[in-house]
Every structure is written in structure tokens, then in C-alpha cells.
TrEMBL record:
<dbReference type="Pfam" id="PF01872">
    <property type="entry name" value="RibD_C"/>
</dbReference>
<dbReference type="GO" id="GO:0008703">
    <property type="term" value="F:5-amino-6-(5-phosphoribosylamino)uracil reductase activity"/>
</dbReference>
<protein>
    <submittedName>
        <fullName>Deaminase</fullName>
    </submittedName>
</protein>
<dbReference type="GO" id="GO:0009231">
    <property type="term" value="P:riboflavin biosynthetic process"/>
</dbReference>
<dbReference type="InterPro" id="IPR024072">
    <property type="entry name" value="DHFR-like_dom_sf"/>
</dbReference>
<dbReference type="InterPro" id="IPR050765">
    <property type="entry name" value="Riboflavin_Biosynth_HTPR"/>
</dbReference>
<feature type="domain" description="Bacterial bifunctional deaminase-reductase C-terminal">
    <location>
        <begin position="5"/>
        <end position="174"/>
    </location>
</feature>
<dbReference type="InterPro" id="IPR002734">
    <property type="entry name" value="RibDG_C"/>
</dbReference>
Length: 181
């Protein structure tokens, strides 16, 4: 099974403002350009996201993932909201156990979303590839994509990545695709 990341950051490495807002992502708008997101999303068969990401997506006017299975990882959330789509389930498992369970269920490629969730899977050595899309903005503070090992059960260790490709778009957006070396 393959665990993959597709995420946007600011130049200074934040995935959201301190209050969780992602309105700055609109800077990336190019008519007819989705930066490869749909091809990526279509290549995954399950989405695993953290609670904060889930709550942000639930605030959108429409659920963007159709009937794709979604696993929300949270230690604090006791149950899903009543309006959660039926394709969503809740997990409190650690990354290794969750990945093993998803593999046993036959999933081939996992889409990981959410800062703390990505950090925990990275610390566990479970991420196989990443698409990092950097927008030409600095936020100064916010929710970092990569942070020192500050979460429970995290161990900081060096990992090597191979740059597979990069692309610079006319609006200054830089996209880099990496795989674990």
C-alpha cells in the first residue's frame, strides 16, 4: 500500500492561518488549472484526514469527495456529526495500525490530508510520496506542514526524498513531486 500527500503551503511552510483559514489558497487560481489534483485524487482509493481538516471540509457548501471512503483520525472526537456523509468513519488508531488495517481492507493508495496527521505518518516513516504546491505568499504564522516532533509518540528522524519533477506556473506557484528515496 502507498501513502501519499498532496497539499499546498505558503512560502514559509504553513498550510493554514493560525485560525485555520485557508482563504489565501485562492491566490493559486488559474483558469482551468487544478495542478494535477483530480488525477491524483482519482488515483487514490481512500482519504485519511485529521479532525481539523475534516471540520474545515464540513464547513464547505458541498462535500468534495463524493462517495470515496474517508477516515477521520482524532483522539478527541468521540463521534462524527450527524450530517457527516455515510462514506466517513472515525478512527483513533496510530499511523502504523491504521495503515495496516487499511491495507488489510484492500486499499492500495491512501491520500493523507492535514498537518498533524501528515506529521505523524511522516514520523512513522509511512509516507511514500508527496506533491507539495507552494503558493507565492508568506503568512508569518499559522499551521505548519512540517514541524519539530512535538506530537505524542513522534520521533524526529531524517528521511531522504528524491525529487521526481517540478513545475513553475505562470502565477508563481511552484509544485514539487517527491518520492521516498
Amino acid at each position: 500500500m502507498q501513502c501519499s500527500v498532496f497539499i499546498a503551503t505558503s512560502v514559509d511552510g504553513f498550510i493554514a492561518k493560525a485560525d485555520g483559514e485557508i482563504d489565501w489558497l485562492s491566490l493559486a487560481h488559474l483558469e482551468g488549472e487544478d495542478y494535477g489534483y483530480q488525477v491524483f485524487a482519482d488515483s487514490t482509493d481512500v482519504l485519511v484526514m485529521g479532525r481539523n481538516s475534516f471540520e474545515k471540509v464540513m464547513s464547505f457548501p458541498q462535500w468534495p469527495y463524493g462517495d470515496k471512503p474517508v477516515v477521520v483520525v482524532s483522539r478527541g472526537l468521540r463521534e462524527l456529526p450527524a450530517d457527516a456523509p455515510p462514506s466517513v468513519e472515525l478512527s483513533r488508531e496510530q499511523p502504523q495500525a491504521l495503515a495496516a488495517g487499511l491495507q488489510q481492507r484492500g486499499f492500495q493508495r491512501v491520500y493523507l490530508d492535514g498537518g498533524q496527521l501528515i506529521q505523524s505518518f511522516l514520523a512513522a516513516g509511512l509516507i511514500d510520496d508527496m506533491v507539495l504546491t507552494t503558493l507565492p505568499i508568506t503568512l508569518g504564522s499559522g499551521i505548519p506542514l512540517f514541524a519539530a516532533a512535538t506530537l505524542p509518540d513522534q520521533v524526529s528522524h531524517e528521511q531522504r526524498w528524491q525529487l521526481l519533477s517540478h513545475q513553475i506556473y505562470s502565477n508563481g506557484v511552484l509544485q514539487r513531486c517527491y518520492k521516498k528515496a
